């Protein structure tokens, strides 16, 4: 079974920071189609702090590192994204408490724990047109795989997130600022789902995983 070390997870977080920072305007523009247009800026503000602090934060264990990142998200990511992303990192960190490497079963449990925390914190569920519509099928896909080939897992979950962009496009948002505009949120992409898919796609590019995007927002 493949394992991920603390250094592996640190690198994935660093790539994520670069993705979020580079797409600040793009994610905000997507959010402006039905929301208040600040998603990209809110997320990038916090991830700029994570990027700057990452070399020096506590790396005694994976859980300790993720819990510190959770605190940064909660403090520096604006709007509803701060508590959501902060809770996700916190719950993932709790599932990896004291560990310096994780096997595939633990990694899958970390994603599941993050999901549970996000749902409890935000009150959203599948079909509400939020990032959960990407994260839930990602977790389900991970549960069907044995993790012996992590590149294959990354390709599979990227495909799931990519497809979620179009699968949820026609939905009416029931959570977040987009829910306040009712039917106008239909036929627009959810920026949180696009964000998750973009992060995964950038991981594919960094780790040499061959994946061709399907959704226009990801294939831009």
Biggest sheet descriptor: 2 strands, antiparallel
Overall average residue pLDDT: 92
Number of strand segments:
2
Trace the largest sheet across and list its strands: 1-2
- Structural classification: mainly alpha
- Low confidence ranges: 178-183
Helical fraction = 55-70%
Rg, alpha carbons: 16 Å
What is the tally of helical segments? 9
| End-to-end CA span | 35 Å
Short description:
This protein has 220 residues and is mainly α.
Give a description of the structure.
The chain has 220 residues and is mainly α. The protein has helices at 6-22, 24-31, 39-53, 62-76, 81-95, 104-122, 132-143, 150-167, 191-207, and strands spanning 3-5, 101-103. Residues 178-183 have low confidence and may be disordered. Strands 1-2 form a two-stranded antiparallel ribbon.
């Amino acid at each position: 079974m493949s394992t991920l070390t603390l250094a592996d997870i640190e690198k994935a977080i660093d790539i994520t920071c670069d993705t979020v920072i580079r797409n600040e305007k793009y994610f905000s523009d997507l959010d402006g189609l039905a929301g208040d247009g600040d998603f990209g800026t809110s997320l990038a503000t916090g991830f700029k702090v994570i990027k700057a602090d990452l070399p020096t934060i506590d790396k005694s264990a994976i859980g300790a590192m993720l819990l510190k990142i959770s605190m940064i998200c909660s403090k520096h990511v604006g709007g509803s994204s701060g508590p959501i992303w902060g809770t996700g990192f916190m719950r993932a960190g709790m599932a990896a408490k004291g560990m310096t490497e994780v096997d595939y079963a633990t990694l899958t449990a970390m994603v599941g724990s993050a999901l549970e925390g996000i749902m409890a914190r935000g009150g959203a569920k599948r079909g509400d047109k939020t990032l959960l519509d990407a994260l839930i099928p990602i977790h389900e896909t991970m549960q069907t795989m044995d993790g012996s080939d992590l590149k294959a897992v990354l390709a599979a979950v990227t495909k799931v997130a990519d497809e979620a962009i179009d699968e949820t496009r026609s939905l009416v948002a029931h959570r977040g600022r987009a829910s306040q505009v009712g039917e106008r949120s239909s036929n627009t992409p959810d920026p949180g789902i696009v964000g998750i898919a973009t992060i995964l796609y950038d991981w594919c590019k960094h780790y040499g995983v061959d994946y061709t995007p399907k959704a226009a927002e990801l294939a831009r």
